[in-house]
Amino acid sequence: MATAGAMERSFLEISGAERERPRHFREFTVYGVGTVNAVVGAVKYSESAGGFYYLESGKLFSVTRNRFIHWKASGDTLELVEESLDVNLLNNAVHLKFQNCSILPGGVHVSETQNHVIILIVTNQTVHRLLSPHPSRMYRSELVTESQMQSIFTDIGRVDFRDPCNYQLIPTVPGLSPNSSTSAAWLSSDGEALFALPSASGGIFVLKLPPHDLPGMVSVVELKQSSVMQRLLIGWMPTAIRGDQGPSDRPLSLAVHCVEHDAFIFALCQDHKLRMWSFKDQMCLMVADMLEYVPVNKDLRLAAGTGHKLRLAYSPSLGLYLGVYMHAPKHGQFCIFQLVSTENNRYSLDHISSLFTSQETLVDFALTSTDIWALWHDAENQTVVKYINFEHNVAGQWNPVFMQPLPEEEVIIRDDQDPREMYLQSLFTPGRFINAALCKALQIFCRGTERNLDLSWSELKKEVTLAVESEVRFECRNGDNFFILI
Predict the structure, then answer these.
(1) How far, in Å, CA of 313 to CA of 322, rounded?
(2) Which of 50, 94, 281, 453 could form a disulfide with 439 if both were Cys (CB 3.0 to 4.6 A apart)?
């Protein structure tokens, strides 16, 4: 028992194979006024994905209990799906195709207010605000007893994606980095939608949409470094004060933490420095050199940073944590900090721990107030997920997450195994075939026999079993032997 109590937690991946009705994606094209076609040789942005859970998803009698949203972005297409573990959500899956645009990696941000679920989307040419009704406004009963409900995406076809209140072409202002692959977005306490993008000269542009229900103008603010202020205060000022910045100051990763009537913008830059701004005051409140926490940094200091990543985690009781991944050839390092505030609006970082990696290639990571969760590619380009407690792990031992293995190419049946069970197991292994593919194969196998293809996972498994058994019976009747699969 003592040994068991000392063991770390283990996690197992649960396959996302469709166990209920086949998922039907509704397709919508978002036409952007003023966007231009991509030219040959244009930047190819990496795919990205994310998820969002409702604030009351853990409350027993909430309409959002066990309910969440997840998305995937690839090229010009955003896939949005709302899921529930308790009820069937209708019209819950959509594909949004942004004409002439590419969605930036990490360019999808979801928030909820009392009345709406708001999705902020950043492409390489446009920004968008998508409003959907909050589930609590669609179903006001606190105790939900229905077996199926409408998703928040049910009426997305009625949305005017070119409404100037919720859509804006990123202005071609001088200095805006044309090939940026990082962004940040957030809602202000007044309901404004704000989008942060790095400038080519090392500053940050913030584009602001007015509240969706109030008249207002779109505005752009540039935070730009002043050489004078940098020497005196290490400060950043608006566009009115021009300064001398090099491309080495360009942000590689952006993150935002909202506080009352303000937002702190964090940028991890090519010069390996972490900078923190107050958006309200348009001033830099802190600059920290991350190389001070890297044991061997001579080679890094001479080169511009690439692959650095920044993530935030907030705990009401513990405060704000910052997770910094410093990328270097053949190795990397996580540095975890806690933001500390002092008098006179001054801030500093409390270094909690450093964790070193050298064996896999980091794809992405997430930070909580206790753990780092990381997605890697190993030497064989296989996906690996690990997590670690960054504060109470002296040995630096990462804990594996047991992933659903990919199905074998061939079905191997031992003498002591039932062939039918093994073939069924192979056919219905999560991730091998989608529901629609099995339905199509069943229709072909049954030689055009009219069949209902809108089947649940369990119904489909039964139909496949019956079809194969019927074929075996037919073949056996025409042969020397006759038997029935049991």
Answers:
(1) 7
(2) 453
The residue behind tokens 């942000």 is: 251
The position carrying tokens 């293995």 is 405
For the stretch 324-376, pLDDT in tens is 999 887 788 999 999 998 877 789 999 999 998 877 889 999 999 999 999 99
Whether the Cβ atoms of residue 253 and residue 273 lie closer than 8 Å to each other: no
The end-to-end CA distance of the chain, in Å, is 43
Q: How many residues does the chain have?
A: 486
Q: Are strands 77-84 and 67-74 parallel, antiparallel or unpaired?
A: antiparallel
Helix 457-477 to helix 435-445 angle, to the nearest 10 degrees?
A: 20
Spatial distance between the Cα atoms of 87 and 68, rounded to a whole number of angstroms: 12
φ, ψ (nearest 5 deg) of residue 5: -70, -25
CB 300 within 8 A of CB 272: yes
Q: How far is CA 354 from CA 232, 307, 386, 396, 405, in A?
A: 31, 17, 16, 9, 31
Q: Are 402 and 12 in contact (CB under 8 A)?
A: yes
Residue 484 has pLDDT above 50, yes or no: no
Strand 26-30 to strand 93-98: parallel, antiparallel, or no bridges (unpaired)? parallel
Q: CA 155 → CA 93, 98, 131, distances in Å?
A: 12, 18, 10
